[in-house]
DNA sequence: GCTTGACCCTGTAGTTGCTACGGGGTTTAG
DNA sequence: CTAAACCCCGTAGCAACTACAGGGTCAAGC
């Protein structure tokens, strides 16, 4: 199977397949006499493993670990489980953050569309003086002025 | 105000401030006699605008638009509103995708922890033969074999 | 006066996960 | 025999930073 077909059947971009090979996620495939990549069924399965992992939001590094764990005859299911749980936690965290964002945006958009004149609630929300959560300036060392501004 | 303080009060990394200047999101600030950046209150407000925008998930390009709309005396609130609504839609989409991922992962993790032996449900899910949604191979053009594999 | 350390400067390269390009070679249908 | 469709390689680009290396500045303490 040539690269184009391998890419199509595993649902990823042709250049992505070469990229996975370049970073060592996919083994270097056989070559035809004219230098074309020739993928075995196993290669394609591995590629599908990767794309499915990506669909589930695993990073390429995590997928690398999963592949390694998978090939380990010592069968370390608990490590796989741990990796998946950690990853799930991260996704849930991200969902929470995005939901918070969405909520705030929705709120702002609603109040904005009420008064469609002079003041825009969305811009106001962005310009607002609310100080960022926790941050101290780096000890201004008795910062005497800064009067010598030029140009 | 020097860069370190400006960064701290607006809640972003010092190098990020320089980055925003480099890409033209933040105007080039005044300089002290010794070449240090000297930020005005307006500069810092603008920086805060940017960081707040980022917190709401706007891209730097979107923030650039918001800043431009904001400075427009012709007051085009509807454009701001449109941008925010589009952005909200994207965030909601992302939340949906991530929630789907999380759901599938949770399902897989649960079934995996049941049988903590030979077969790992998580790896199985990744190795599974389920073909990717919609994808046709690129017309194998009667692809005659590929028998000439070498090396 | 001199050192120490915190701060600042510039420019460049790295990160993740691709995607796109230029400039070529190969294969096969018509 | 030509044109289209496929493949090769290497490099550069994207977003949005972050992290150096290799220097300069400045105030305080000894």
Brief rundown of the structure:
2 copies of one chain form a homodimer. With 151 residues, chain A is mostly helical.
Describe the 3D structure.
The structure is a homodimer of 151-residue chains. Chain A starts with a helix and ends with a strand. Chain A has 6 helices and 3 strands. The radius of gyration of chain A is 26 Å and the shape is elongated. In chain A, α1 packs across α2 and α1 (3-10) packs across α3. In chain A, a hairpin with a 4-residue loop joins β1 (30-32) and β2. Helices cover 59% and strands 5% of the residues of chain A. Chain A folds into 2 domains: 1-56, Orthogonal Bundle (Multidrug-efflux Transporter Regulator, Chain: A, Domain 2); 76-125. In chain A, strands 1-2 form a two-stranded antiparallel sheet. Mean pLDDT of chain A is 81; it is low at 131-151. The interface between A and B is large, with 73 and 73 residues.
- Give the helices and strands of chain A as they follow along the chain: HHEEHHHHE
CATH topology of the largest domain in chain A: Multidrug-efflux Transporter Regulator, Chain: A, Domain 2
CATH class membership of the largest domain in chain A: Mainly Alpha
Largest sheet of chain A: 2 strands, antiparallel
Which protein chains make the most extensive interface, counting residues with beta carbons within 8 Å of the other chain's beta carbons?
Answer: A-B, 73 and 73 residues
Count every beta strand of chain A, where a strand is a DSSP E run of 2 or more residues: 3
Strand content of chain A: under 5%
C-alpha termini separation of chain A? 65 Å
Mean pLDDT of chain A: 81
What is the second-level CATH architecture of the largest domain in chain A? Orthogonal Bundle
The count of helical stretches of chain A stands at 6
